[in-house]
Write a structure and sequence with these properties.
The structure is a single chain. This protein is an alpha/beta fold and 315 residues long. The protein has one domain: Rossmann fold. Helices cover 40% and strands 18% of the residues. The protein has a 7-stranded mixed beta sheet. A two-stranded antiparallel sheet has the order 4-5. A hairpin with a 5-residue loop joins strand 8 and strand 9.
């Protein structure tokens, strides 16, 4: 074994190698569940859910058990009450890579453990600044970039979850109106596991010159997953999703993007390519891909959208 191999931070598995790690874990979802849980443009199959996400749920169950034991040991040492600390899983990656599908399928599998844990799912969309503020700061065309999020509020939310605080509010984001809904919240009430899905959740941010202790969102994650794919494939999937949305969600007159459903195919394609090249690609290159190496698990997709390789960080 070369020194380079010894120092590599990840163990790599082919799809078939990873599938064997399910051991005797029973599959608790069926094809109908997968059809219901997958996103509009993510053609995930039942076989992929069984071969990739079932072993992953088994791994996470072992990690949760070990983390709970660690917290119990710490509580004994500190003489504290040892109350339950939610286990937080982060799911990161590019626009159109399939984060929502991964988060929903993982949640469904984890909910069906024999212990029936409470598993909640939130996205970072609710922590975007309202459009009025983005417009005021001239950030509308940088929506999804780190600076378009209320990062202090997001970190505050994660901190409250980790402290075991009951009934923590999460702002609600509407993809229909493309904005945060004023005064609306969903409540997260001390789950056993919380899955957080978003573009930039693994980004560390800038370190203070004076060495002052600061917190990043990733500091609160117990386990992180990065969905990876080649730029050309991400671009193709983004354009495919944009096309399908024109025929579905954008057709609603209430949709912020309704005008795109009225465009000619040529006009819509031109706009979609502009959005990818000027907004999504720079965000991917500058802010998302650099966080990939911080993930505990990397799921690498091929051009068919199927996961072809799994990389697990060494402990």
């Amino acid at each position: 074994m070369s020194n380079q191999t010894k120092l590599a931070p990840y163990l790599y598995f082919s799809r078939s190698e990873w599938a064997k790690l399910r051991a005797d874990e029973p599959m608790t979802l069926d094809a109908g569940d997968i059809e219901r849980l997958r996103a509009l443009s993510d053609p995930i199959s039942f076989e992929e859910a069984e071969e990739i996400y079932l072993p992953l749920s088994r791994l996470i169950s072992l990690y949760v058990e070990a983390t709970q034991a660690l917290h119990l040991a710490s509580s004994r040492f500190l003489g504290s009450n040892g109350r339950k600390v939610p286990y937080i899983i982060g799911v990161a990656g590019s626009v159109a890579v399939g984060k929502s599908t991964t988060a929903r399928i993982l949640r469904a599998l984890l909910q069906r453990w024999p212990s029936s844990p409470q598993v909640d799912l939130v996205t970072t969309d609710g922590f975007l600044y309202p459009n009025a503020l983005l417009e005021e700061r001239k950030l509308m065309e940088r929506k999804g970039f780190p600076e378009s999020y209320d990062r202090a509020r997001f970190i505050g939310f994660l901190s409250e979850i980790k402290s075991g605080k009951p009934r923590v509010g999460v702002p609600v984001y509407s993809h229909l109106v493309y904005d945060v809904l004023p005064g609306e919240e969903v409540i997260v009430d001390r789950p056993d596991i919380l899955i957080v899905e978003g573009l930039n959740i693994l980004q560390p941010g800038e370190l203070p010159k004076n060495g002052r202790p600061i917190l990043f969102a990733s500091d609160f994650l117990d386990f992180s997953i990065y969905l990876d794919a080649e730029e050309a494939d991400l671009r193709a999937w983004f354009m495919e999703r944009f096309s399908r949305l024109r025929e579905t969600a954008f057709a609603d007159p209430k949709s912020f993007f309704h005008r795109f459903s009225q465009m000619s195919e040529e006009e819509a394609t031109k706009f979609g390519l502009w959005a990818w090249e000027e907004i999504n690609l720079p965000n991917l290159i500058d802010n998302i891909v650099p966080t990939r190496s911080r993930a505990d698990l990397i799921l690498k997709k091929g051009s068919s959208h199927a996961i072809e390789e799994v990389a697990l960080r060494k402990l």
